[in-house]
Design goal:
The chain is of the alpha/beta class and about 150 residues long. It has five helices and six strands, in the order βαββαβαββαα. The protein has one domain: 3-Layer(aba) Sandwich (Rossmann fold), CATH 3.40.50.
Length: about 150
Amino acid sequence: MIYVDADACPVKAEIERVGTRHKVAMTMVSNGGLRLSQNPLVEMVVVPDGPDEADKWIAERAGPGDVVVTGDIPLAAKCVAGGAHVLKPNGEALTGANVGAALAMRDLMTDLRAADPFRQGGGKGFSKADRSRFLDALERSLRAAARI
C-alpha cells in the first residue's frame, strides 16, 4: 500500500503511474479539494478539517510493507517508527537513521523563524531533478516493501 499525504504533494501523478505499474493500492489522504482519480487502485480519503487530521489517519494505518509519501517530518517519524518506508516528494528517504535529525532540524528552523519574524525566504523550488529522484526512490521503496 502507498499512503500519500496528498494536500500539498507535487508528485501525485508520478505515484499513481508507478503504483499502477506495480499493481499496488494507493490511498490519497487530504482535507478535500483533490481531483478524483478514475484508477481503481487509487482510493481518495477525505478527512475532517483540522490540524494534522490527514497525518493522524495515515499514522494509524501505515506499517511494515507500506510506503508513505509526505513532506511532514513528524508524520514521517511516526510512520518510520511503525515500520513503513517513508519518502519525501523530492525522493529523500526518511529512515530510523535520519528521521530524528530531520525532526530536530525542523524544530530548530521553527524556533529560528519564531525568533525573527522578518526572516525572509523559503525552501528552494521543486525541480525536474527532484521529480526524477522521487521516481527512482519510489521504485526502490516499492521493491523493498514487497520483500517484507
